[in-house]
Amino acid sequence: MNEIFDTILSAAFVAAVIRTTTPVLFASLGGLLSDLVGSLNVALEGMMLIGALTAVVVSAYAPWYVGVLAGLAVGGMLGGLMALFHLRFKADVILVGFAVNIIAAGGTVTALNYATGGDKGTSINLPSKAVPSLDLSFLDAIPGIGPVLTQMFSGHSYLTWLAVFLVFAIWYFLYRTPEGLRFRAVGEYPAAAEAAGISPNRLRTYGLVASGALAGLGGAQLAMFNFVGFTRDMTAGRGFIALGAVLLGRRHPVGTAIAAVLFGAFEALSIALPGILPRVPGEVIHTIPFVVTVLALMLSSKRRVTA
Fold first, then answer.
1. Are 178 and 4 in contact (CB under 8 A)?
2. How far apart are alpha carbons 233 and 49 in whole angstroms?
3. Counting beta carbons within 10 angstroms of the beta carbon of residue 180, is it exposed (0 to 12), middle (13 to 18) or buried (19 or more)?
4. Which residue ranges does UniProt annotate as crossing the membrane (predicted)?
């Protein structure tokens, strides 16, 4: 037990939490934006997966940032496609989202097959690039805590710091700008927003496109930093965990970010535990983030009912 606490309280574990949180945080912020305009995006999982593959394939033939932008763009296009079917053709947004997830699961394998010349499981033969890390070793100069801060915060990807910035940028947009107020109004009471001259469908389209773009960024971070390369079903439920973070975070940017960090911590713990508890089957340990997600959502739901 002491070994578990020593692991959790170490600077290396904090660094691992930041690393595992980043893809989920991007997808969570995307899910938040679509949820606030009344179009819950359950396709985050599929969008992350397609964004990851696109980023890897494009980065094999272009600079790393072009790969990242490609992941963002394909996610945004998928969001636009969801908006088209949901708002124009009146399809149920949940069903459209599940369709995207199903297409992503099979389509990425087929696309990977074409991109690698026959490999259906991994892009190991594709010379894709990685997102560079940001060196903060100057923190070493801080007396006393400098080396610990360096170990915690140095070496993370540029996208990690972009995700942190987006938490506060989205908070500012939603709660300090007129457009953010309209965004929230459409989700809370669309009829009143429409009576005030606001187009709910326009803002819902923006929400879904932004949601897809952020999920695509999460996929790019996953495939170009957390893992360098694409593997089949590599998102492993992170898109659904991101939805849980939105609900657990009470549909607020800061709350959502805190919930994403919580899920990231349990994912990091599930990675560290097999080395500490070798007798516990790895399959059991790797279910921890999903069990925590279900329990957290149950508690959150119970709290809302009793409030």
1. no
2. 7
3. middle
4. 12-33, 40-58, 64-87, 94-115, 158-175, 206-228, 257-277, 283-301
pLDDT tens track for 170-180: 999 999 999 99
DSSP string, the chain: -HHHHHHHTSHHHHHHHHHHHHHHHHHHHHHHHHHHTT---TTHHHHHHHHHHHHHHHHTTS-HHHHHHHHHHHHHHHHHHHHIIIIIS---HHHHHHHHHHHHHHHHHHHHHHHHTS-SSB-TTS----PPEEP-GGGGGSTTTHHHHHHHHTTEEHHHHHHHHHHHHHHHHHHHSHHHHHHHHHHH-HHHHHHTT--HHHHHHHHHHHHHHHHHHHHHHIIIIISBS-BTTTTTTHHHHHHHHHHHTTT-HHHHHHHHHHHHHHHHHHHHHHHH-TTS-HHHHTTHHHHHHHHHHHHHHHHHHH-
Give the closest residue to 79 by CA, choosing from 55, 63, 97: 97
pTM over 0.70: yes
Asked whether 243 and 44 are in contact (CB, 8 A), the reply is yes
pLDDT score recorded for residue 299:
72
260-295: b (≥16 Cβ within 10 Å) or e: bbbbbbbbbbbbbbeeeeeeeeeeebeeebbebbee
Question: Cβ atoms within 10 A of the Cβ of 3, count?
Answer: 11
Instruction: Name the band, by pLDDT with cuts 50, 70 and 90, for residue 128.
Output: confident
Closest CA to 258 of 5, 68, 27, 21: 21
> Is residue 289 predicted with pLDDT exceeding 90?
no
In angstroms, the first-to-last Cα distance of the chain is 37
Q: Which residue has the higher pLDDT, 171 or 292?
A: 171
